[in-house]
Amino acid sequence: MLTYPQIDPVVFSVGPFSIGNGSIGPLAVHWYGVMYLVAFIIFYALGKYRIHRGRHAGWETRDLDDLLFYGVIGIIVGARLGYVLFYKPAYYLENPLEIIQLWHGGMSFHGGFLGVLTAMTVFAWLRRKPWLEVSDFTAPLAPLGLAAGRLGNFINGELWGKPTALPWGMIFPHADDLPRHPSQLYELALEGVVLFIVLWWFSAKSKPRGAVSALFLIGYGLFRFLIEYVREPDGFLPELPLHFSMGQWLSLPMMLAGIALLMYSMRKPGSDNQNHGAD
Prior knowledge:
Low-confidence stretches: none
Number of helices: 9
Number of strands: 7
Distance between the termini: 40 Å
Shape: globular
Strand order of the largest sheet: 1-6-7
Helix content: 40-55%
Number of domains: 1
Mean pLDDT: 88
């Protein structure tokens, strides 16, 4: 049995500051926000590596700059609105001003994913690049950023798992005194590290356009669906059909879309073979 290490979610804070007759602050930098920054840095570094290796014909560093810019906006806006709409629509309908209070927490991967899809669509249209070419370029760069996000969840001591008798069960004082699955670390390992290794290997050689994107959809959806069985469900949500969690219901269309896209991309493997891999 392990005990959660009680990591301070705040990296550092400054203030409060006096302004006239009032004050503002203190202003705090949270580890979760730092993990978002780490994710963007990883995405950019890996993307630059692939471009400089010459594995993506027609891509330049300025393309990566713009893709990251649109992606950052898409992730933040999409993740927040996804949480609002998928998890607590009634609450935020009554408290609309809290939607912009990101420091209170509440971000959804699936909402962020939809935001990224929107960002890629805008980028592809402006750059006049095929959408699947953009998604195939993006897919292998994303998992390590997802791992950073899950590390942020662990540091915050949130999204813990269900009770377990396994020797690595961890007590999260925020929850109770029961040893629980450290589901954040499971997601870090599977949705982050393992998925990155699989996609990097799979994209090392040319594949039909859309195949790398399809594998990302299938891989993430499958890992998330399975981990949800040991993750404590959100207590504020009603019981959903088939006893699936919200995360599982949102992962199902990802897997189905991935399977359909893989079948489509493999239909004529030699006709649209434009995904250049990276070593």
